[in-house]
From TrEMBL:
<dbReference type="InterPro" id="IPR003819">
    <property type="entry name" value="TauD/TfdA-like"/>
</dbReference>
<dbReference type="GO" id="GO:0016491">
    <property type="term" value="F:oxidoreductase activity"/>
</dbReference>
<protein>
    <submittedName>
        <fullName>Clavaminate synthase-like protein</fullName>
    </submittedName>
</protein>
<feature type="domain" description="TauD/TfdA-like">
    <location>
        <begin position="37"/>
        <end position="160"/>
    </location>
</feature>
<dbReference type="InterPro" id="IPR042098">
    <property type="entry name" value="TauD-like_sf"/>
</dbReference>
<dbReference type="InterPro" id="IPR050411">
    <property type="entry name" value="AlphaKG_dependent_hydroxylases"/>
</dbReference>
<keyword id="KW-0560">Oxidoreductase</keyword>
<dbReference type="Pfam" id="PF02668">
    <property type="entry name" value="TauD"/>
</dbReference>
């Protein structure tokens, strides 16, 4: 029982480390949840080395099956908090996003703008979309490495003075807007009282300030902060400097901590590196 190493056409090689590492069933009809439970000790270390693990060839036919797989790892559950629309399908299982499948979603870490964020995230494809709808994964340590190699002066300034990021929530909740961030601050913090909402922001969100606008929108400002953090001895580009989607209404406002503009070529380089990794 257990796993054998596999290979997929889309995998990448960074130095001598494959991304993602692919594991296949060693026997036909292998139950993935049972196999994981028997070897769960290995996966934390393999994730540290490879950044992602792909389990392929197993019979996981429903959200409930996938919930069993997630539980088998024995890792603590973390509730989802965010301004996107997700539907709960089973215990610990939600849809990835209810935005239209033609909406391109930029590289980001899950819940990275909160004080508490998940250390691991699972993805499961029940039914592939005919066109679009893919969820790409990116090794963010490679993004940090490439930016330091190709944009050393920019990265030196990022280290010295940090970045200031500003992200807005919409004034009205509109599921048909095509935006990834579709929820208002009132929905997000479960109150329409600004003072109470600010208390909840201070408790959960890592922003330095929040402004509730008269039109119903809100602006969250982060920084000055370094978007690169270290996890397990590796530097990772952790905080997003683009909006969560290609929709111009969701672009994150970004400046250096001293108020000066971030060069356009640095933004283009950042965008280009991760898009090339996922072969967009």
């Amino acid at each position: 029982m257990g796993f054998v190493e596999g290979k997929i056409e889309e995998e990448k090689l960074f130095g001598d480390v494959v991304f993602p590492k692919t594991l296949l069933p060693s026997n036909k009809g292998e139950d993935l949840a049972i196999a994981i439970a028997k070897e769960r000790h290995r996966f934390s270390e393999e994730l540290k080395e490879h950044g992602a693990i792909l389990f392929r060839g197993f019979d996981v036919g429903s959200a409930d099956d996938f919930s069993r797989v997630v539980e088998a790892f024995g890792w603590d559950e973390m509730d989802f908090i965010g301004a996107t629309t997700r539907l709960k399908m089973a215990d610990r299982v939600f849809t990835a996003n209810e935005a239209p499948i033609d909406q391109f979603i930029n590289f980001h870490h899950e819940m990275s703008l909160l004080k508490e964020f998940p250390s691991k995230i699972f993805f499961y494809c029940f039914e592939p979309a005919p066109v679009g709808g893919e969820t790409s994964i990116v090794p963010s340590n490679i993004i940090a490495e490439k930016m330091e190699e190709q944009m050393p002066k920019v990265m030196e300034k990022v280290t010295d003075v940090g970045l200031i990021l500003c992200l807005s929530t919409p004034k009205d909740e509109d599921e048909d807007s095509g935006q990834v961030i579709s929820k208002t601050w009132k929905w997000l913090f479960k109150t329409d009282d600004k003072l109470e909402a600010e208390k909840r922001v201070r408790k959960k969100v890592s922003c330095t300030s929040v402004k509730f606008n008269d039109d119903g929108s809100a602006e969250f400002t982060y920084g000055p902060v370094n978007p690169v953090r270290e996890f397990g001895g590796k530097k990772a580009w952790f905080l997003p400097i683009l909006g969560y989607s290609a929709n111009e209404k969701e672009v994150i406002g970004i400046n250096f901590g001293d108020g000066s503009d971030v060069p356009r070529e640095a933004i283009d380089a950042y965008k280009g590196y991760w898009r090339r990794i996922v072969s967009i």
